[in-house]
Amino acid sequence: MATALLDLPEKEYILPGTRTCAGCGLPIAYRHMLKALGPKTIVTLPACCLTILHGMYPKTPVLVNAVNNVFGGTAASASGLVAGLKALGKDDYTVLAMAGDGGTFDMGIQALSGAAERQTNFIYVCYDNEAYMNTGVQRSSATPAGAITTTTPVHPKEQPKKDFIQIMEAHHPAYLATTCSSYPLDLYDKFSKARGISGTRFIHLAIPCPAGWGYPTKDTVKIGRLAVETGVVVLYELENGVFRLTGKSLNLAKTRRKRPVEDYLKTQARFRKMTPEQIEAYQKAIDERWEGFLNRAGL
Amino acid sequence: MGAKILTGNQTAALAAKLCRVQVIAAYPITPQSKIPEVLSEYVESGELHAEFVRVESEHSAMGVCISASLVGARAFTATAANGLAYMHEQLHWAAGARVPIVMPVTNRGLGAPWTILNDMQDSIAQRDTGWMQFYCLNNQEILDQVILGYKVAERLLVPVMVCFDGFRLSHTMMPVDVPDQEAVDEYLPPFRPAYELDPERPVNINPVVMTDPIPGVDGRLWPGYMGIRRRLQETLESALDVIAEEGRTFGARFGRSYEDPLYRYRTEDAEILFVTMGSLGSEASEACDLLREQGVRAGVVGLRLFRPFPVKAVAEALSRVPRMAVVEKAISYGLEGALATEVKAALYGLNGARPIAVNFIVGLGGKDVKPVDLCEAARRTLSVESHGNAPLHPVWLSNEI
Ligand SMILES: Cc1ncc(C[n+]2csc(CCOP(=O)(O)OP(=O)(O)O)c2C)c(N)n1
Ligand code: SF4
Ligand SMILES: [Mg+2]
Question: Which of B21, B27, B52, B67 to mutate to test the interface with A (most CBs of A within 10 A)?
Fold first, then answer.
């Protein structure tokens, strides 16, 4: 059963006043994630915008234990937490590894692949804002084609986004899901479910970023929704080999009301240089992927 | 338990077992691979209760050890050469995070070009990471210094590399006196971390720190980056005394004292001293005997500690000798061997009482170093009449083309 807004735990694990930019999608998601995972969570994180959210020594607004680690080592750090806690008989902690797209799709891939292959008992979340935001909006392999970044300033990125979720699926994790900060209940349900499963759980979390994407800070929730409504982001989960569309994506599949990608692209300055041909190509790629999902879901 | 005949690698693994390590992470690299192999057997046969994480890289091996240690487990890994270089970022992190990991390094040369054979370029290149570095003369010292390493590391919250020569020790059988488990347990009680994880009092470990101190919620000032890093340096400065103290206790319990950071051989009346590290001390000692037969009063000073650097002990040991040959298996390219530089720096305060020094680079990439080669080094050093005549550059002692 899907959780209703009023059923969410009241306990907050992030105090007001984090250091993320105004309108950032990250704290919205993190707030609901931690509500689902509870106080016996220990999170490990690399350098990224999440580090900034966690605050500067000696203060932190986050009410779970956190272990910072090097940029490419998040899944290894999580493996160490899991091994250390197990060796000490502290089996009741949930180990959460959380890194950005750069720290996952690019530099963190080796450690994550290793940890997933070892079937490490942890939840790995890649929050994806589609560039290296912390260092000033440089291109990552998660940046979609057509986006302007500070390292693709004149000619927008030519290559499409790496299909990292498929790479993770090929590791056959115990649980795999995608979600988005604009759908906190979908997100909450997936983390609640993940918490109750043991083994490697991978969650891809789409996070709109006003500073890096170029849209008004008030529109974060709307932009995330547009990403889902246009099929740029598809909400699903994969458990025991069973694929399921969830939430808004399931709804779109049933109503066949997916919106054209242009509705999403035109809201953000980073796509301002996209040509009609590029938009058409992007639309085609999204439609093909979407058909694939419909087939997998048997819809 | 008594004497056993063991390779250096078997010794290191056995020492880890005696220390009851709780988390092991390891990745294979020659000449270290046997250490995790032996430990795997201990763990799989139930002789050792530990979590064994067979990681996909050395970068991750150290990442696993750091986080396991942070939650309170005694963590262990071992590596060499390119594996150690691959860890470099994590080595800094481990020392900054103040985790008492102990890691044997089976010293090996670094590529390019590839060599799997012994020199000390790998660990010497990591000297500034904030780790303590112990060097071993023989397999007995490997066993002892791993145990001593945990004792000191957990007291100071600084990680320790126990460095020993690849193949020359790692693959060579030697008699090792192995203490009973109970005796080790008594010397090295279970690791008690400085704090316990508590969900009621969550902490953010190793976050971003500012340059200047910032007040906490309690209104007190908390250190900035330099403050935190100065504490690491102060701890390493105090480490010499702590190592001496624990080394003395070790001697009282096990009959082999590590109070003296130096291995000394026939130094009392020496007119020339070999200054070296690791198993080279053995060859240098043999060379001394040969030289003394020929009427040359030679001696050896071998450093068991490179970090913290035993400045006083080195200065005292060398202040009265007229000449020294600093013989080492690593080089700071563009200058000389790091040992030579540091030994000379240790003598700086001695008001002119400094020996004539010649630096010899030997044994790189497994090149054999025979006692006769060292006799040649001594002769060359003895032929230098004054400081002004000492070679400007290190002498490469090899019959290379
Ligand atoms: C080894 C290493 N290389 C580079 C960096 C610099 N760095 C810090 S954060 C960051 C970008 C992070 O991007 P991402 O993971 O996508 O997270 P975001 O900042 O976008 O939230 C980079 C490149 C680093 N910390 N370590
Ligand atoms: S750069 Fe983007 S992701 Fe990072 S804190 Fe700002 S809005 Fe959030
Ligand atoms: Mg990013």
Answer: B67
**The model's pTM:** 0.98
Res B354 pLDDT > 90: no
pLDDT at B349 over 90: no
Q: Assess whether pLDDT exceeds 70 at residue B1.
A: no
User: Is ipTM over 0.90?
Assistant: yes
Q: Rounded to the nearest 5 degrees, what angle is found at the Cα of A243, between the Cα atoms of A241 and A244?
A: 145
What domains lie within chain B, and their CATH numbers? 2-187 (3.40.50.970), 263-396 (3.40.50.920)
Cis peptide before B15 (omega within 30 of 0): no
Q: Which ligand 1 atom minimizes the distance to the CA of A26?
A: 21
AA letter at A141: S
Q: Which atom of ligand 2 is nearest to the CA of A133?
A: 1
- Which of A50, A53, A71 for mutating ligand 1's site (highest number of atoms within 8 Å of CB)? A71
Name the residue of A31, A209, A223 to mutate for ligand 2: max ligand atoms within 8 A of Cβ: A209
Contact B118, B107 (CB under 8 A): yes
For B141-173, the pLDDT digits (tens) are 999 999 999 999 999 999 999 999 999 999 999
Alpha-carbon separation of residue A229 from A222, A253, A278, A283 (angstroms): 10, 10, 20, 13
How far apart are the CA of A133 and the centre of ligand 3, in A? Answer: 5
Mean of the pLDDT values across residues B116-144? 98
Phi-psi region of B48 (alpha: psi -120 to 50; beta: other; left: phi over 0): beta
A143 lines ligand 2 (CB under 6 A): no
CA-closest candidate to residue B63, choices A40, A97, A123, A175: A97
The CATH code for residues A9-297 is 3.40.50.970
Helix (H, G, I), strand (E, B) or coil at A217: helix
